[in-house]
Design brief:
Elements: H1 3-15, H2 20-31, H3 37-48, H4 57-66, H5 68-72, H6 77-93, H7 97-111, H8 117-133, H9 137-149, H10 158-173, H11 177-194, H12 197-214, H13 221-234, H14 237-253, H15 257-269, H16 277-292, H17 296-312, H18 319-332, H19 336-351, H20 361-373, H21 377-397, H22 402-438, H23 443-495, H24 499-516, H25 528-534, H26 539-550, H27 554-570, H28 580-586, H29 592-603, H30 607-627
Helix pairs in contact: 1-2, 3-8, 4-6, 6-7, 7-8, 8-9, 9-10, 10-11, 10-12, 11-12, 12-13, 12-14, 13-14, 14-15, 15-16, 16-17, 16-18, 17-18, 18-19, 18-20, 19-20, 20-21, 21-22, 22-23
InterPro entries: Homeodomain-like_sf, HTH_AraC, HTH_AraC-typ_CS, TPR-like_helical_dom_sf, TPR_rpt
Keywords: Coiled coil, DNA-binding, Membrane, TPR repeat, Transcription, Transcription regulation, Transmembrane, Transmembrane helix
TPR repeats: 241-274
Length: 628
């Protein structure tokens, strides 16, 4: 009797003793025991199209575990590979993602030395599908690199270029800009050989997004211009729309909202279908630029379109943005009740989206801004708290410095103090209205309540004074922590060995001196290219040193040094006669809008708000001296 007949007989006998659902499991593998390449490929197609279903995925997973030896005791490589794909799908259905990824690797390895290229590619695409559903960028890169390096796709295949572009995009999302640029360059080279203009345009757009984060000048505009030239020559309206959108995004990031609005509108004019997903994505950014530009009627109009089309096209994930725009519109038109209504709808919609509810710090911060506009303390605190938690989480996940988390906490406390002050103002307003109704003609009662009012104000002023004492203490702790971190870095650098490491440490040490002693960031045209020349090295090596030691892009580092210098200046009498714009120029900013945007991003406050806080601290010192 052959081994295959023995296995078939064993399966048949075992099925007689299995409970209901397990009989179905066994029958599934009975039908697959003679699986061929054609039937296996058809099965893989059904999985990638979303047709894979099983009752009781948890039970199925354990059944596969228990029966692994008998199932895998076969020479049929397709059945073996089928087993691991089934196990991967069952594991993913029970939220056991790491096991699912390992099973896909096993399914691929079984066929790795065969010539079944289509089957191997489809197995890896299932791995991509699972890692995409699990929002696991690193695993997705792993499967894409397997496709790239396994020889499944020929070098003249445009699909290979698309794979490289996907890897470049994922590395960009992980803030690993050097790796992203490396894959963009590969894709540009391949797309040129293949005359694949669509791939070339996508590579140029990804190069733009990378350059924007590592360059302090406007050199990234070159990639947008090249992308637009190629898109126009190709005549593909969707690609032209995408390039115009990215051009608008570049102006938005530079703080030029009018130009951003112009290019967003151009992008929409090339969209094939109004209300499509890409059109609504552009609308979301257009709405944001209208908001920053304070174009109230435009925000109201586009929010209505946004809301209507999101429901019509079943793109419910965009509804929260539409509701947020409506809330802002009603806040600006003094319709508080409607604003609060749409604030709640925006919050509820975002909370219903599993992939976004815990990854939207900017969204919740914008809700906080609207709640602050309508003086709703409770909602403002709730939204600000969510934004703060998610900013800290994002920093931790991207390996940010502990100092950033401390600063995030400090910024949060400053905003919370602002809300508490707002609460005090609300209470005072209510008391004033109550007094106007009750105390008319009651002189004695007025005197008593006036005295109580001044006692209350004095108490609140003391509380405010204590809060700023704590703020001063935290600033001192922040400075001490920064000093300890710098000393620790010096000690670690002193004990490192090896020629390569010494050279890296020397460049890093000189880099710190250029920033902290020479204050090179004050040069308006400072760039990583200029800096590399000063340090007698190349940009790639310098970029890797910056990423390794600072764990932040070059542009962010320059902005932080500049803004910290501005904070120092605003706290001293050195530049009393300077305007804010004059101080911005002093530290290296050419554009007023870029300075304001950077200051708000790093400190959580506008320059004007920051100066007001500094004055409050000065008033506190004066009050303290007078009291003493």
């Amino acid at each position: 009797m052959t081994m295959l007949k023995v296995l078939t007989l064993a399966f048949t006998i075992s099925l007689l003793f299995l409970p209901g659902v397990q009989i179905i499991f066994g029958q599934k593998f009975q039908r697959a025991e003679n699986m061929s390449a054609e039937t296996y490929e058809t099965y893989l197609d059904s999985v990638t199209s979303g047709d894979w279903k099983i009752e009781s995925a948890g039970e199925y997973y354990y059944w596969l575990e228990d029966n692994s030896k008998s199932i895998l005791n076969t020479k049929n490589i397709f059945l073996k590979s089928f087993y691991f794909v089934e196990k991967a799908m069952a594991a993913e259905a029970t939220d056991n993602d790491s096991v699912a990824y390992n099973c896909i690797n096993e399914a691929f390895v079984i066929l790795s030395k065969t010539n079944y290229s289509n089957i191997k590619l489809k197995i890896l695409k299932i791995g991509l599908l699972l890692s995409t559903r699990g929002f696991d960028y690193f695993t997705k890169i792993h499967f894409l690199k397997k496709i790239e390096n396994s020889g499944i796709l020929k070098s003249d295949s445009t699909e290979l270029t698309d794979v490289m572009l996907q890897i470049a995009d994922l590395y960009w999302h992980l803030h690993q800009y050097d790796h992203s640029i490396g894959y963009c360059e590969k894709a540009l080279h391949l797309s040129g050989l293949q005359n694949y203009k669509k791939g070339k345009i996508r590579a140029l757009l990804t190069m733009y997004t990378n350059s924007h984060f590592i360059s302090t000048d406007k050199s990234y505009k070159f990639y947008l211009e090249e992308a637009l030239r190629n898109a126009l020559s190709l005549g593909d309206s969707s690609l032209i729309a995408e390039v115009y959108f990215n051009t608008g995004l570049s102006f938005y990031r530079d703080g030029n909202q009018q130009e951003a609005i112009k290019y967003y509108k151009l992008s929409r004019s090339y969209e094939k279908e109004r209300g499509s997903q890409s059109d609504l994505y552009t609308c979301a950014h257009l709405q944001l630029s209208f908001t920053i530009a304070d174009s109230v009627e435009a925000v109201g109009k586009i929010s209505n379109f946004f809301m209507r089309e999101s429901v019509k096209q079943n793109f419910y994930s965009y509804l929260s943005n539409a509701y947020r725009g409506k809330a802002w519109y009603f806040a600006k038109t003094a319709n508080r009740d409607s604003s609060v209504f749409y604030l709640d709808k925006a919050f509820e919609n975002r909370q219903s989206l599993p992939e976004k509810k815990d990854a939207s710090p900017g969204f919740y911060y914008n809700l906080y801004v609207v709640a602050d506009m309508v003086r709703d303390k409770n909602r403002a605190l709730k939204y600000l708290s969510l934004a703060h938690k998610q900013y800290v989480k994002a920093n931790r996940e991207s390996n940010s410095e502990q100092l950033n988390n401390i600063r995030a906490s400090l910024d949060y406390e400053l905003q919370e103090e602002k809300i508490n002050n707002l609460s005090l103002q609300n209470e005072l307003t209510k008391e004033k209205n109550t007094r106007q109704k009750i105390f008319i003609g009651a002189v004695t009662a007025l005197l008593v309540l006036t005295l109580s009012f001044f006692i209350y104000i004095r108490k609140k002023y003391r509380q405010l004074r204590d809060s700023y004492k704590e703020l001063i203490r935290k600033n001192l702790e922040l400075d001490k922590l920064h000093s300890r971190i710098s000393k620790t870095e010096e000690k670690v650098n002193h004990h490192k060995n090896g020629n390569g490491i010494k050279n890296e440490d020397e460049i890093y040490k000189r880099l710190k001196e250029l920033f902290e002693k020479d204050k090179i960031y004050k040069q308006a045209d400072i760039s990583i290219i200029n800096l590399a020349k000063m340090l007698n090295t190349n940009t790639s090596y310098l970029s890797s040193i910056i990423n390794h030691h600072f764990e932040e892009p070059f542009k962010t580092i320059v902005n932080k040094y500049r803004i910290n210098e501005v904070r120092r200046i605003l706290g001293s009498s050195e530049y009393n006669n300077y305007s804010i714009e004059g101080i911005a120029e002093e530290v290296g900013y050419k554009s007023r809008s870029t300075f304001y945007q950077s200051f708000k991003q790093i400190t959580g406050l506008t320059p004007t708000q920051y100066i007001e806080n500094v004055r409050l601290l000065s008033d506190y010192d004066l009050y303290k001296n007078e009291s003493d």
